[in-house]
Amino acid sequence: MRTPHLAVHAGQIAFPGGKIEPSDEGPAAAALREACEEIGLDPAAVAVVGYLDRYLTGTGYRITPVVARIAPDPMLALNPQEVQEAFEVPLAFLMNPQNHRRGSRVFMGHERHFYEMLFEGRYIWEFTAGIIRGLYETDV
């Protein structure tokens, strides 16, 4: 969960990630760098599996979701400037369509529709839930 003082998406549940920097060798390298910076995830503990289709957010960001496997119980060191809390959600929960609800909100005068998921009192919504739905819809 992002810290409440951030200018963008404060307090929201999000995957680690961010802008691809010129020094990154593509989306996977950027994802590994960002995960290390934000939650202290050692890139050596990550096996990249592939990518999901690009996700366009309602605010115009283009996200390339990177799918990876991580060893159980990874050692994390949260960056308190960016991350308030890290938690795991079982894959079985995320891949159960009964947990995928459709929600909407009015934003800047327009109604926006998105997926939302409630897990143990935590509200996963908008692009994070949309990326999870994209994984669910992937024919693997």
Describe the structure in your own words.
The mean pLDDT is 90. The chain is 21% helix and 26% strand. A three-stranded antiparallel sheet has the order 5-6-7. Strands 1-4 form a two-stranded antiparallel ribbon. Strands 2-3 form a two-stranded antiparallel ribbon. It has one domain (27-137): Nucleoside Triphosphate Pyrophosphohydrolase. The chain has helices spanning 27-39, 91-94, 126-137, and strands at residues 46-51, 55-56, 62-63, 66-70, 101-107, 110-119, 122-125. The chain is α+β, with helices and mostly antiparallel strands and 140 residues long.
Q: How many domains comprise the coordinates? A: 1
- SSE run: HEEEEHEEEH
* Biggest sheet: strand arrangement: 5-6-7
Shape category = globular
Kindly provide the name of the CATH class. Alpha Beta
Strand proportion: 25-35%
Identify the CATH architecture.
Alpha-Beta Complex
Count, helices: 3
